[in-house]
């Protein structure tokens, strides 16, 4: 880059102090947010829910009050169920749209592939469909090799391994082996 790298003027201990102060401030604000939400919830519930006055009511009046409360609970439960169903529907729709977007981009997660044995004929049939009529026997197209040819190519010298063991032992034998390896003609 055209500009030389400048060393940071903040020391490591100062950076650590600043990080710890930032974390402390964030935790303080988070705790305050939790308290504020709890107070808001209590205020909302106190506005919506009137306190029950059950003192001085007869048995039939208490039963009527229970029935009325039960009906309200059922209505609220139905609304909760409807909202939950809408929410689930929306999350499914969002998931489907995300998949469509990924497909349009061409970046999608590929499934793990399994190895499958397929013959050459089946592969060509899958690729070409009904157009494929020629049978392809791969083994028939292999070059045939005669047994005599292979034996002529590699003449094998079979000798007695015990021969010259004494001659090759010791430093003299090692010198002979070294000289034989060094010379290209093998002399």
TrEMBL record:
It comes from the Eukaryota. Residues 27-79 form a coiled coil. Transmembrane segments: none annotated. The keyword Coiled coil applies. Keywords: Acetylation, Actin-binding, Coiled coil, Muscle protein. GO terms for cellular component: troponin complex. SUPFAM superfamilies: Troponin coil-coiled subunits. InterPro entries: Troponin, Troponin_I, Troponin_sf. One of its GO terms (molecular function) is actin binding. The keyword Acetylation applies. GO terms for biological process: cardiac muscle contraction; skeletal muscle contraction. Binds to actin and tropomyosin. Belongs to the troponin I family. Troponin I is the inhibitory subunit of troponin, the thin filament regulatory complex which confers calcium-sensitivity to striated muscle actomyosin ATPase activity. This is Troponin I, fast skeletal muscle.
